[in-house]
Design brief:
By secondary structure, this protein is of the alpha+beta class. Helices cover 25% and strands 38% of the residues. The protein has three helices and seven strands; from the N terminus they run βαββαβαβββ. Strands 1, 2, 3, 4 and 5 form a five-stranded mixed β-sheet that branches. The longest helix has 16 residues. It is globular and about 40 Å long. The chain starts with a strand and ends with a strand. About 14% of the residues have low confidence.
């Protein structure tokens, strides 16, 4: 089975994410027709309405399976925006395990994600 995979660093919700970048990212990814998208610096916002950046991208691409794992560093844990990694897939199911984080550059725990096709 051939699987088309794309990886992308989103740099969170800043830099005009809601006004321009979200649309640009989704349109750009559609051109590649990925089966799997791996995201770094992906964000879940808890302030006001819940917003899940990976789920929004998945919906825009028609990819149904989304797994997000927060970095878990203390600054982000106390913030309304939690950064992390995410896997979005066309089929299968995702599993995630947030075993850790890397606060202040010190690796104290690991973050793992897996995709089952």
């Amino acid at each position: 089975m051939r699987v088309r995979c794309v990886t992308l660093n989103l740099q969170g919700l800043g830099e005009e994410w809601f006004t321009r970048r979200a649309e640009v990212v989704i349109k750009g990814l559609r051109k590649y027709r990925p089966d799997v998208v791996c995201l770094q610096e992906c964000t879940v916002r808890y302030a006001g309405e819940l917003y899940q950046q990976a789920a929004a991208i998945g919906e825009g691409l028609g990819l149904r399976t989304v797994a997000f794992s927060p970095y878990g560093n203390p600054i982000e844990v106390m913030s309304a925006d939690q950064g992390g990694i995410a896997i979005i897939a066309r089929a299968g199911r995702c599993s995630r395990s947030a075993i850790g984080a890397c606060p202040s550059g010190t690796i104290t725990r690991q973050i793992r994600g897996s995709l089952f096709l």
